[in-house]
Design a protein that fits this description.
Blueprint: E1 2-8, E2 17-24, H1 30-40, E3 44-50, E4 59-64, E5 69-70, H2 74-87, E6 94-98, E7 101-107, E8 113-118, E9 123-125, H3 131-135, E10 141-144, E11 151-155, H4 159-163, H5 169-172, E12 179-185, E13 195-201, E14 206-209, H6 216-227, E15 231-236, E16 242-249, E17 252-257, E18 259-266
Length: 269
Amino acid sequence: MRIRIVDAFTDRAFAGNPAGVLLLDSFPDDDRLQKIALEVNHAETAFAHRLPGGGEADWALRWFTPAAEVAMCGHATLATAHVLHTTGAHEGAVRFATRSGVLVATPREDGSITLDFPTAPLTAVEAPAGVAEALGAEPRSTFDTGPNVGDLLVELADEKTVRALSPDLRALGAYSQRGIIATARAADSAQGYDFVSRCFFPNVGIDEDPVTGSAHTALAPFWSQRLGGTILTGLQASPRSGRVRTELRGDRTLLSGHAVTVIDGELLA
C-alpha cells in the first residue's frame, strides 16, 4: 500500500503541516484506519478512494488524527489533492465526498491549490472561567466556531502574546470539542500576513497543530469583519509555521496554499 507524507501550506520541505496520504481501492474497517493514523503519527492522515463516475464527487475522503476521526481537515485535503495532481491520478478540480459535505480542491497556475470549504459560523460567548489561566493569556473576545470546526476561538492582545503562549494543554481540553484557536492582528502587515494564530487540540491527540486549514474557515470571517477585507493571509506561528491565503465568500471560504511531497514509500503491514 503506497503512503506519502506531504507538507501542506508551504512551498518548502520540513515546514507547514505534514499529513499522511493513502490512495485506496476502498476504505478498510475504521480500526485499521485508526491504527495506520497512529503509526503515521502526524496531525492527520488522509484516506481517499475513487468514486464511480457521474456522481456529485470524484473521491471519498476521510481524515484521522492519531486518536480520532475528524469532521474537517484543511491541510490533509490540500495534501491529498497535491498527491492526486502530481501523480496524475486526477486532473483539474477534484470533488471530495467528506463528513463536511462535498469539498472542492482546484489547482492554480502558480502551483498552489485552492480549497472551497464551508465558512464556520461564529457565535460570541463569554470567556469560560479558567481559560485565561489555562492558555496563559487574557482573552479580548471569545467565539464558538460551530460543530464542523469545534474549537473555541480566542482573540488575544497582540502578535507577541500569541507567539509567546505556553498553555496548560491538559487544562485546555475542557473548553471545547477539539481545542483552542488563539489569534491576534499582525504586528506589521508589511511582512505579508494580516493576522497570526496558533492552534492547540489536546482532545484529538494534537498538542499544537502546525498549520490548520479548518481553523481558517473561522479566522477568515473573524478578521474580515475587523480588517475590512475579504481576501487576507494568515500566518500560523507554530514552530514549523505556514501561511494560508483566505477569501471569504459568504457561507464559503476559499483556502489557498502550496504543498510538497517529502516521503513516498510503502506500508507493509
